Amino acid sequence: MDFTHLFAQLEATSLAQAISQSTWLFPTIETVHVLFLTLVVGTIMIVDLRLLNIASRNRPVSELTAEVLPWTWTAFVIAAISGGLLFSSAATKYIGLWPFRAKMVMLALAAINMAVFHLGAYRGVAAWDRAPATPPPAARLAGGISLAIWVTVVGMGRWIGFM
Amino acid sequence: MIKQFCDWLSATALCGLISNHYWVIPTVQTVHIVSIGVVVSSMAMLHFRLLGLAGRSQSIAAVAGRFLPWTWGAVVVLLCSGALLIIGEPSRELTSAVFWLKMELVLCALLLTGAFQAVLSRGHGFWERHRVFAGAVAVVSLGLWASIVVAGRWIAYMAHG
Lengths: 163, 161
Description:
The complex is a heterodimer.
Chain A: H1 4-12, H2 14-21, H3 25-51, H4 61-89, H5 91-94, H6 98-119, H7 137-160
Helix pairs in contact in A: 2-4, 3-4, 3-7, 6-7
Chain B: H1 2-10, H2 13-20, H3 24-50, H4 60-88, H5 90-94, H6 97-121, H7 126-129, H8 131-157
Helix pairs in contact in B: 3-4, 3-8, 6-8
């Protein structure tokens, strides 16, 4: 399947044209993107560090996720929309850059990791929700993988700007 | 004065090491961004608690005790990685008005956090009793940290005039 024409069409939309031709739109949208991705990554790290039994150990996992993840998702939606707008401004260029592709692969892996965790280890959370119980190996693994993935996502995102 | 300092920094071995390897700057920037993520998010969770938006089942002292050590740890990483970025490209940062604005904002945010913590550590549930004041501190602090992230990004756009 060749999606090149789709990216070319995206790039030709009036919104994408406005972003690429304006002097201030791209930097402004990018600033919004950076601001909200700091919240996405930081709040995910709060959960990951709990799963790894490193931080918030006296806080039940289910309460921690309930208090943190709504902010993560809100920030993620804003980061995804702003990121999509940035992408549209030069879609055919970005799609060819290896850090951009790597970042998208990493985001997909993050989604898979999250789904595996929720359908697997998290189902039995009642047994390890509270200290002194520690999260089982599968939960710790999910936390560690998530941490590594999100640091890589930030790194690849930064690398796009240096291509 | 600053010009001479930039020239001196540019001549250091560390600057040469950083600028001769294209991957060092983006790598250090990645560490810098992840660390600001830790600061912004730990501050946000504390401030959301002060505003009554999250974690209300815990006392302010308990929430602060959970998050503030991470904030300060990440601030140290930010200062170190930021120093490396300055050494790597001295004039990009030190001759930028946005950079100095950012430094002033950082100073304000750190002083505010220190003051908040000092009042908290005296006990007596000061922040629980003065909810409006606590909320105001939270809004100002969140605004400061958001401005720091914004200013950080704009150093790149306002470079060299």
